[in-house]
Amino acid sequence: MESNVNPMPVPGQPEAPDTGTLKGFLQFLWQELKPRGKVLTPFNIITAIIILGGIIIIAIRLAKGLGAVTNLSQTYPWGIWIGFDVVTGVAFAGGAYILTFAVHILKVKKYEPIVRATVLNGFLAYVFYSGALLLDLGRPWNVVNPIIGNAFGYGSVLFLVAWHFLLYTLCLFIEVSPAIAEWLKWVKARRIIQKVTTATIILGVTLSTLHQAGLGALFLTAPSKIHPLWYSSNIPVLFFISSMFAGFSMIIIESMFTHKIFSDRLDEHHRASHNKILLGLAKGSASVMAAYLFLKVIDLTHGHQLGLLLTPMGLWYLVEVAGFTLLPLVLYVVAIRRQSVRLVQWTALLTAIGVILNRLNISVIAFKWYEAVRYYPSWMEIWVTLAVISMELWVFQWVINRMPILGEHEDFKSEEKTLTNLNDGEVVRWKASAS
Amino acid sequence: MAINRRNFLKVAGAAGGILLAGGARSGRTAQTPQTPQTAGGSVEFYGILIDTTKCIGCRACEEACNAKWSLPKPKVSFSSESVFEKKRETTPEAYLVVNRFPNAKSPDKPIFVRKQCMHCTEPSCASACLCKAMEKMPEGPTVYHKDRCMGCRYCMISCPFDIPKFQYDSASPFVKKCIGCPDRVAKGEQTACAEACPTGATLFGKRRDLIEEAKKRIYENPDRYYPHIYGEHEVGGTGYMYLSAVPFEKIDFRTDLGTKHYPELTSGFLSSVPLVDILWPAVLFGFNYLISDKEEEGGKENDHGE
Questions:
Q1: Are residues B12 and B111 located together in one domain of the fold?
Q2: CB B150 within 8 A of CB A138
Q3: Within this chain, do residues B81 and B100 fall inside the same structural domain, yes or no?
């Protein structure tokens, strides 16, 4: 174990500040804000450079406008800050609603060990993606207009998405907050949160359903601009269904790193059931993917678009649908029959690529595919995207080193055992590879 | 049996609360499909009929528009024909541009076509905007409230004619487009461009009258016109309509936009929102309740037993 500056205080010990008082709380916070473990790891140095560069680019963007740093144009008003950061990122954050649904509503206990990490991931993803969204807005200070302004555009899909996005982020915060309360030793708050957990999760699943679908519905208004192979009145349903297997695949990818790096720190329960969890997730993913492909085939045949498959865009469509959705489905089935966890993990990576391709195709690549001058992201757009991801990793690393996320969350005592030993470098490596 | 009165009330109350909350929010959303901006009847909108067979490419309309909105003067003067060498799009500094197209019918007479906002009867941009920055006026113009706009550019994604333009080089950018001279139209006066037109190629009037006029022209001069009024039915009808001597795809109009109002594209989805918002929580609470019940019977603690 690296020398921790301040090991997590154990309740009852005199030196632990009393977080019940404001002074004690601030003292505790200050103590916790200090970095733990080795600071100058290669990962930290690289991400620090990326974040610093990102901040400079963001400053230029705020001072001179979007045109100074992005390749956005009058023809392509949305680039990767929307298409990747928001549209794709939110799909992958879908793991949180699927898993809370399985564990808290359907009471499938088997997945309990990974719920907290998944929910934390989802929450941070939402916070940072909405941050990225603010950068993309021309007039971000007006972002409150549809929330508290007097100009509600009820007829807008984006209005619906904005509200559901905001409310769901609050739900995720409540879902994460037991870990925060345990970290702060706020017993009473913990108990209150407990009482609203089920209602919050139900609300969260509902909100997720609508805003995952809503992100797809945004593109319904561009029938003449999106390539007919991708445009369909089923886009909202397709987005919702694919957010499920995007979520599943992300959980698999994450938990394979959890297992590898934290195997000695994870509790018995988690280790023993790890393979079962992954195979279960693979089964879930495969059945959802089958439904998704079924809808895709219906769209293709009903739209009489089979002829388009032999065009260049058609081949690209086949790469996405056959190569990164159908193939992973087959591989999942093979993996489940052979009980091969390794194959499940590789397949999850393929599936994730498929989801990224799908979201980017609809929002950027197949959007105005007919234009002579196409949009490509500028290096600064990519840099800022990386900076946003790096910042998220830093926060994730900070949280997971201090709050009871990975271990059993049964009572306040077990948390120190599982968590004080974590070493920043390892967390970072795990999380870095997970994204 | 574990159902006791207290538990039942708890669940019923919670479900009811969610229902009410969902209902309240979705009640508003439910209005969407039929939120036609004020003048739903649409026929009495003011509009413009642009007869491209009469346009001589003098660009007086461009100049008038530029003056009316105090836009920056272009580098090339309004009397220069050099701008016709390349097809132009509207920009944040030019809400109206005239383009030149070759005329297959009589090659010595090129066709001039002005391009600006079409002022759709049910504008896609207005239904896309989440803070009502784009709004259809009862008189017909689709206007822009710059104080409401957050710069998300969803209007640009949604506009079938790619008309809204964004000030990418500004730190405090706005969306810019022809807003149809709402100040003049409200007083019953014609737009600046219509007033400036020396040949009558741009004709201002009530939309219904303009359609009558257009039909009359086509009927009386079948050789002069291609028999179609662009904008009569496109995207559910537009306020600004066109007549042409040649098929419209030859002068760079999209003829694949369909005749559906664009807001209809999302109305199905939006009307499903209240259903999901209400039914999902009810079903989920039901599930949750059923499953906790089963577990209690088996003597196990339910999910709250942490």
A1: no
A2: yes
A3: yes
Average pLDDT of chain A to the nearest whole number: 85
The answer to the question of residue B130 being in a domain is no
Task: Collect the ranges in chain B with pLDDT lower than 50.
Answer: 1-3, 5, 7-43, 298-306
Contact criterion met (CB < 8 Å) for A224 and B153: no
| pLDDT score, position A266 | 60
In this structure, of A255-264, A280-289, A408-417, B233-242, the range with the lowest mean pLDDT score is: A408-417
CA distance B9 to chain A (A): 15
Task: Give the Cα separation of B266 and A218 in Å (integer).
Answer: 8
What letter would DSSP give residue B246?
S
Smallest CA-to-CA distance from A171 within A147, A192, A198 is with A198
pLDDT tens digits, residue range A320-376?
Answer: 999 999 999 999 999 999 998 889 999 999 999 999 999 999 999 999 999 988 999
Are the beta carbons of A158 and B31 separated by less than 8 Å? no
Interface probe with B: pick from A168, A221, A409, most Cβ of B within 10 Å: A221
Same domain, B165 and B19: no
Name the closest residue on chain B to residue A76, using Cα atoms. Answer: B157
Q: Read off the pTM.
A: 0.84
Q: What contacts B117, CB < 8 A, 6 or more positions away?
A: B95, B142, B161, B163, B177, B178, B179, B180, B240
pLDDT band for A111, please (50, 70, 90 cuts).
confident
Predicted confidence (pLDDT) at residue A155 exceeds the cutoff of 90: no
Provide the pLDDT for residue A316: 95
Is A79 part of the contact surface with chain B (CB cutoff 8 Å)?
Answer: no
pLDDT confidence of residue A306: 83
Residue type, A76: Y
Contacts of A220 in chain B (CB under 8 A): 265-266, 269
With cut-offs at 50, 70 and 90, classify the pLDDT of residue A420: very low
Same domain for B17 and B117, yes or no, is: no
Q: Which of A97, A139, A164, A410 to mutate to test the interface with B (most CBs of B within 10 A)?
A: A139
What lies within 8 Å, CB to CB, of B48 at 6+ separation is B191, B193, B194, B202, B203, B204, B205, B210, B239, B240, B241
Residues from chain A that touch B14, judged by Cβ atoms under 8 A, are 199
Provide the domain count of chain B.
Answer: 2
Across the interface, of A62, A142, A155, the residue whose CB is closest to B171 is A62
Kindly state whether residue B163 falls inside one of the protein's structural domains.
Answer: yes
Of the candidate CATH numbers 3.40.50.720, 3.40.50.300, 3.50.30.80, 1.20.1630.10, the domain formed by A38-434 belongs to: 1.20.1630.10
User: What's at B66, amino acid-wise?
Assistant: N
Nearest alpha-carbon partner for A394 in A128, A208, A181? A128
Contacts of A424 (CB under 8 A, 6+ apart): A2, A35, A36, A37, A38, A41, A44, A397, A401
B-chain residues within 8 Å CB-CB of A73?
A: 168
Candidate ranges A257-266, A412-421, B1-10, B85-94; pick with highest mean pLDDT: B85-94
ipTM above 0.90, yes or no: no
User: Closest approach of chain A CAs to the CA of B225, in angstroms?
Assistant: 27
Domain extent, residue B27, equals 5-34+271-292
Q: Residues 302-331, chain A: which have Cβ within 8 Å of B?
A: none
The reply to whether residue A68 touches residue B172, judged by beta carbons under 8 angstroms, is: no
Closest CB from A75, A103, A206 relative to B280: A206
The CATH number of whichever domain residue B161 belongs to comes to 3.30.70.20
